[in-house]
Amino acid sequence: MKGFMIAMVLFSSSVVFAQAQQGQIIAVAATDKTEKAQVSKEAARPPYYLIFDEHGKLVEVMPNPSCDVFRGAGPKVANFLAEKNVTVVIAGDFGHKMTNALDEEGITYYKGTGMVKKAVQEFIRQDPSKR
User: Fold this and answer.
1) Helices 96-105 + 73-83 axis angle, to 10
2) First to last CA, the chain
3) Is the CA virtual torsion 31, 45, 47, 90 positive or negative?
4) What is the pLDDT of residues 7-32, one digit of tens each?
5) What is the pTM (predicted TM-score) of this model?
6) Which helix (H) or strand (E) holds 52?
7) CA 86 and chain centroid, separation
8) Which tens digit of pLDDT belongs to each residue from 80-120?
9) How far apart are CA 112 and CA 45, in angstroms?
10) CB count, 10 Å around CB of 9?
11) What are phi and psi of 68, to 5 degrees?
């Protein structure tokens, strides 16, 4: 019976981990509206966010409503992305206010550079244990 319980706990843990990886919504701070755009250096003030599913398929292009905000762009963007159910954000750099706001929203963040599509593919290819 003890062996059965251990096996069930291990199985349940692996199912939960697999579910956590499925359904990710990836937002990339982008300099333009296409997958060939560059990852924006700034997470809070890019002109666009490109939204991808967990397989790397582009599902939506959103203008950043906080792109020209004078103050507090990071927390506003974090809230905007949370409302869109984003789970991961990729950008060139993140300010401390934005990282704090993303942490509060439960959104993870990763630095990326180069073409948006390649940054998403690289993120997906990464070993989950290194994230």
Assistant:
1) 30
2) 36
3) positive
4) 343 443 333 333 335 689 999 999 99
5) 0.80
6) strand 48-52
7) 6
8) 999 999 999 999 999 999 999 999 999 999 999 999 999 99
9) 15
10) 10
11) -110, 15
**3-state DSSP assignment of residue 59:** strand
Domains of the chain, first to last: 25-126 (3.30.420.130)
66, 58, 63: which is closest to 25 by C-alpha? 58
Amino acid in position 106: G
The Cα 73–Cα 45 span in angstroms is 7
Tokens of 124: 């997906």
- Length in residues, the chain: 131
For 48, the token pair is 């666009």
Q: What SS3 state is found at 40? A: coil
